[in-house]
C-alpha cells in the first residue's frame, strides 16, 4: 500500500484526451475556481480521467490533466500517487477493495481474503476474463458490518465465505446483486430482532428536556427532606425549651457558698480570731454583699435540681440598646435554647447582637438571667456568653437552631 508506482511502460497508452463531454464538464469544474487557482480542480479531473479510462490512471492522463490546469507534471503525479482511490494500474471490471483492518480481521476478513486468492489470485492481479481484481485496504468506515468489501463504488457487508462466493458468482454472471449487508439485516441495526431504542417516546419528542425535569424533581425531593429534618430538629429544640433538663449547679460559682466565704465565717463568729483579721473579714463581708447581693448569714437554699443564684444588683446591668445597630439585629435564635419568644424578650430588654452578649461578664449574664421572666435560668445554663462569642466571630451552626453547648 505504501509504494505506489505507475504501471509498466508496456501497458501505458501513448496518449490520453478527455471525450468531448468530459472536456466540457472539466471546463465547468475549472471555472468554479478563481483565476490562478485552477489547480484546485486536480482531484475531480483525475477522478473523471480514471472513470473514462477503465478505472485506472495512465501516465498520459496525469500529464493531460497537468496541462489543462497549468501545473507541473510532478505536482499532479504527487496527488495521483498519494490517494489510494486512484488506481495506477489496470483493475478488473469488478475491482474489489477488501478491508483488512482489525474489526474486519476479527470478524473473518481472513476467510474473505482466502476466497479472493482462490478465485482471483494475488492482489492487483486481473483475472484472464478481465472481470476481477482485488486489493487489501485500510478501514473503509463500515466496521459495524464487518467483514466487508467495496466493489467499484458499492459496499458489501456482513460477509461470510459463502455469501461472498455467491456475490462473485452473481457479478460474474451479470446477475443483479444487493448492496449493503448480505445477512438480511438492515443497515447496521442489530442482527435478528431490534431490541434496543424501541421506546416510541424516544422519537416523538416527548423526552426533550426530560433530564431537566428529572433534576428539578430530585432537587425538590432533597429540599423537602431537608425541611422535614429541620422541622424535626426545631420540634426537638422546642421540647427541650419547654422541658429543660435538670440543671447542675454551676461549677464556676463555688465562691457563692456563703458558708465557705470569709464573710460567712465572720458572720458565724468562727473567724477571724486575730483583731487585724477581723477588719479584713468585715470588708470581705461588705464586698460579698455588694457583689452577689446576698447577706452571708442567709445563703440561698440550693435545690437539688436547679442552680440557685443570688440576685445581682442593677449595678451589673449590662449595656443595653434602644434599637439594633444599623437597624438590623442578629438572629438570636441561633443561640441554642433561644426560641422566637425568648428572642423577642431579649429585644425588649435591649439585647440585639451576639457581640453584645459576648462582651458581658458573669454578673452581667446573671443580671439578664434574672430578668428573663419565665425563661429565668436559661442564660447561665446555656452558656450564652460562650455561644455568642462563637457566633460573633462569624461561626455559624449547621442548623438554624444553634448547637447545644457541651458540658
Ligand atoms: S475495519 Fe473494516 S470497515 Fe472498518
Quick recap of the structure?
The protein contains 15 helices and five strands. The protein is mainly alpha-helical and 407 residues long. It has a five-stranded mixed β-sheet, covered by helices on one side.
Q: How does this structure look, described?
A:
It is a single chain. The protein has a five-stranded mixed beta sheet, covered by helices on one side. The relative contact order is 0.05. The chain is 41% helix and 5% strand. With 407 residues, the chain is mainly α. Residues 99, 101, 103-104, 139-143, 146, 148 line the site of FE2/S2 (inorganic) cluster.
CATH topology label of the domain at 94-181: Glutaredoxin
**Gross CATH architecture of the domain at 94-181:** 3-Layer(aba) Sandwich
Overall body shape: elongated
What integer value in Å does the Rg equal? 50 Å
The CATH class name of the domain at 94-181 reads Alpha Beta
**CATH homology superfamily of the domain at 94-181:** Glutaredoxin
Instruction: List low-confidence stretches.
Output: 254-259, 288-305
- Helix/strand structural class: mainly alpha
Helix content: 40-55%
**What is the overall pLDDT average?**
86
Largest sheet: 5 strands, mixed
By oligomeric state, this entry counts as single chain
Physical arrangement of strands within the biggest beta sheet: 2-1-3-4-5
Q: Secondary-structure element sequence? A: HHHHEHHEEEHEHHHHHHHH
The count of β-strands is 5
Distance between the termini: 85 Å
**Share of β-strand residues:** 5-15%
Which molecules are bound besides the chains? FE2/S2 (inorganic) cluster
Amino acid at each position: 500500500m505504501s509504494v505506489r508506482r505507475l504501471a509498466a511502460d508496456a501497458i501505458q497508452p501513448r496518449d490520453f484526451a478527455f471525450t468531448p463531454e468530459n472536456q466540457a464538464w472539466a471546463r465547468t469544474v475549472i471555472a468554479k475556481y478563481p483565476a490562478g487557482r485552477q489547480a484546485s480542480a486536480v482531484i475531480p479531473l483525475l477522478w473523471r480521467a480514471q472513470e473514462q479510462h477503465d478505472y485506472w490512471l495512465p501516465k498520459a492522463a496525469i500529464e493531460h490533466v497537468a496541462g489543462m490546469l497549468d501545473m507541473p507534471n510532478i505536482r499532479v503525479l504527487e496527488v495521483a500517487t498519494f490517494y489510494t482511490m486512484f488506481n495506477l494500474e489496470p483493475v478488473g471490471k469488478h475491482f474489489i477493495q477488501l478491508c483488512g483492518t482489525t474489526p474486519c480481521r476479527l470478524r473473518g476478513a481472513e476467510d474473505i481474503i482466502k476466497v479472493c486468492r482462490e478465485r482471483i489470485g494475488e492482489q492487483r492481479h486481473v483475472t484472464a476474463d478481465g472481470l476481477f481484481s482485488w486489493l487489501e485496504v485500510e478501514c473503509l468506515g463500515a466496521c459495524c458490518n464487518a467483514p466487508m468489501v467495496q466493489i467499484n463504488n458499492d459496499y458489501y457487508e456482513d460477509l461470510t465465505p459463502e455469501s461472498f462466493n455467491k456475490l462473485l458468482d452473481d457479478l460474474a454472471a451479470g446477475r443483479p446483486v444487493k448492496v449493503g449487508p448480505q445477512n438480511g439485516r438492515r443497515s447496521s441495526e442489530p442482527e435478528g430482532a431490534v431490541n434496543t431504542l424501541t421506546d416510541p417516546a424516544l422519537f416523538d419528542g416527548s423526552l426533550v428536556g426530560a433530564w431537566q425535569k428529572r433534576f428539578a424533581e430530585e432537587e425538590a425531593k432533597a429540599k423537602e427532606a431537608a425541611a422535614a429534618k429541620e422541622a424535626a430538629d426545631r420540634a426537638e429544640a422546642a421540647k427541650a425549651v419547654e422541658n429543660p433538663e435538670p440543671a447542675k449547679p454551676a461549677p464556676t460559682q463555688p465562691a457563692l457558698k456563703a458558708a465557705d466565704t470569709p464573710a460567712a465565717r465572720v458572720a458565724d463568729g468562727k473567724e477571724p480570731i486575730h483583731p487585724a483579721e477581723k477588719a479584713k473579714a468585715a470588708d470581705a463581708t461588705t464586698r460579698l454583699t455588694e457583689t452577689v447581693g446576698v447577706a452571708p448569714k442567709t445563703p440561698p437554699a440550693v435545690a437539688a435540681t436547679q442552680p440557685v443564684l443570688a440576685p445581682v444588683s442593677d449595678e451589673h446591668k449590662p449595656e443595653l440598646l434602644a434599637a439594633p445597630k444599623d437597624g438590623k439585629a442578629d438572629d438570636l435564635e441561633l443561640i441554642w435554647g433561644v426560641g422566637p419568644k425568648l428572642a423577642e424578650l431579649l429585644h425588649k430588654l435591649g439585647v440585639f447582637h451576639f457581640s453584645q452578649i459576648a462582651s458581658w461578664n458573669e454578673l452581667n449574664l446573671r443580671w439578664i438571667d434574672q430578668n428573663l421572666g419565665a425563661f429565668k435560668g436559661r442564660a447561665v445554663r446555656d452558656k450564652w456568653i460562650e455561644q455568642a462569642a462563637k457566633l460573633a466571630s462569624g461561626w455559624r451552626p449547621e442548623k438554624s437552631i444553634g448547637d447545644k453547648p457541651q458540658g
